Amino acid sequence: QVQLVESGGGLVQAGGSLRLSCAASGFPFSNYWMYWVRHTPEKGFEWVLNISPDGGTTYYSDSAKGRFTISRDNAKNAVYLQMNSLKPEDTAVYYCAATLDVGLGVQQRYWGQGTQVTVSS
């Protein structure tokens, strides 16, 4: 059974930090690109950042650059999102997602249930 379970969300003041974790099971984690995506009713889904299967390559959205860091531990089947200098506009439900290109333009994707991050001004 595939599972992605996020944790670490909560309420934090602007300028503070949070570290989100995502524990994966039920699939070959080390083969998958891992993403953090966030959702608000106003903006919908927004890609935040992602990391390659071996952890050697990362991509950051403009909103994440300089403030957020993604990392992974393939031995623990986990991916992390360190968020610093948080802003009220970072308030969202944060999801981790796993993606694998299976060929012919098809991707296999799994999603977690999300964790709420609320940043107060």
Protein topology:
Blueprint: E1 3-7, E2 10-13, E3 18-25, E4 33-40, E5 44-51, E6 58-60, E7 68-73, E8 78-83, E9 92-103, E10 106-111, E11 115-120
Parallel strand pairs: 2-11
Antiparallel strand pairs: 1-3, 3-8, 4-5, 4-9, 5-6, 7-8, 9-10, 9-11
Structure description:
The protein has about 120 residues and is mostly beta strands. The chain has strands at about 5, 10-15, 20-25, 35-40, 45-50, 60, 70-75, 80-85, 90-105, 105-110, 115-120. Strands 2, 4, 5, 6, 9, 10 and 11 form a 7-stranded mixed sheet that branches. The radius of gyration is 14 Å and the shape is globular. The model has no long low-confidence stretch (mean pLDDT about 95).
Order of helices and strands: EEEEEEEEEEE
Separation of termini? 40 Å
Helical proportion? under 10%
The protein's oligomeric status is: single chain
Q: How many individual β-strands?
A: 11
Q: Using the alpha-carbon principal axes, give the shape.
A: globular
Uncertain runs: none
Kindly name the structural category. Answer: mainly beta
Could you tell me the mean pLDDT?
A: 97
DSSP helical segment count: 0
Indicate the proportion of strand residues: over 45%
Biggest sheet details? 7 strands, mixed
| Rounded radius of gyration (Å) | 14 Å
